[in-house]
Write the structure tokens for this entry.
Amino acid sequence: MENVLIIGSTGQIGSELTMKLRGNYKGNIVAGYIPGAEPNYEIKESGPCEVVDITNAGQIAQVVDKYKIDTIYNLAALLSAVAESKPQLAWKIGIGGLCNVLEISREKKCALFTPSSIGVFGLNTPKDKTPQDTICRPKTMYGVTKVTGELLSDYYHTRFGVDTRSVRFPGLISYVTPPGGGTTDYAVDIYYSAAKGEKFVCPIAKGTFMDMMYMPDALRAAIEIMEADPTKLEHRNSFNIASLSFDPEIIFNEIKRYVPDFEMEYCVDPLRQSIAESWPNSLDDTCAREEWGWKPEYDLDAMTNDMLTKLKERFA
Ligand code: SER
């Protein structure tokens, strides 16, 4: 990995991944963005930025040529809840966009990372310790695009030798760039409410468990999978990775240890709740551990401590 293009560099993952790659690598780390989602000052000042719309193949190809890109991070997507209100657009970005980057990766010999998600699973998937290779029949358009993306990415690898790799991200928690329109977003929002001294209104019901991960672990996963020895990879698109699994009560009680007067009430959002109930409680990430040495570093306490410290500083 030398010259890297991040498509969707101003989103929840992209904004932090861009800065981390720029810190770790000496080549061109190009921040691709779309008008209306401009990079912040830090991203603009620290390296090249280009308008790259995932639905515009010509634009992507031009930037790949200009900076001699060898690795593409394809982070453009609509998250699960918002994709339900715009399913056609979710397909256009998720799959139309993926076809563009797969073809460009084939022609220009780029390695390609396209994140997948716990959203690939559905109601008939084993819920606890969900295996790597299991039933993937999602009920959301987000999940449909992610399963299709996994299949297409594996196809391009076996048929054309394109170096496609991926991980199935759980809900990602970070204090930098908020997610937008996901089902797991509550686990970010709850920290913002606690840090601001506000009561939290939880859209997910008590007892609903989902996989979650702190962003530093997720960034490390996205980089380590692309640096992994290809001869050790039996899977590619896409690896289960796991770190934390909790329901709203567990995270609320954890935050209360730091903010004793913190309050939460439930106002369940039926869409998000039905999506959450169709996803696993916890994934089995043995294959990622064995094939490329995946290991999370943050537990719930370490994440909570860091999140609250950083957010309190910001709101002070
Ligand atoms: N965080 C995503 C969502 O909730 C799942 O990958 O949509």
